[in-house]
Design goal:
mainly alpha, 56% helix, single chain, disordered C terminus
Length: 97
Amino acid sequence: MWLCGNFFESLGLQEMEEREKVVKYMWDVYTNSRRLRLPRFWQQAFEAAYEDMSSDVPGVHEAAITEIAKMSANSIHLDPPPIQSTVGTCCDSALIY
């Protein structure tokens, strides 16, 4: 594949883990939702990788997830997780940050 290793090495482990979580979630939507139409990137990625994503061979499914996560770095912007305050009131824990 044409993906540049140096670019993806610079993404960082935490960002790649977040991207892999998004891929897993979107795969679940792709395979289980008949009502929702995914954005073009996800539709094309899952169509191209369908055999690998649905494989029972150890490592094949996870490798496909990682590859799609890497490709998403060129197409999908992920918002960073919100920063939670360490100072707050008794009711702060009920808020979703």
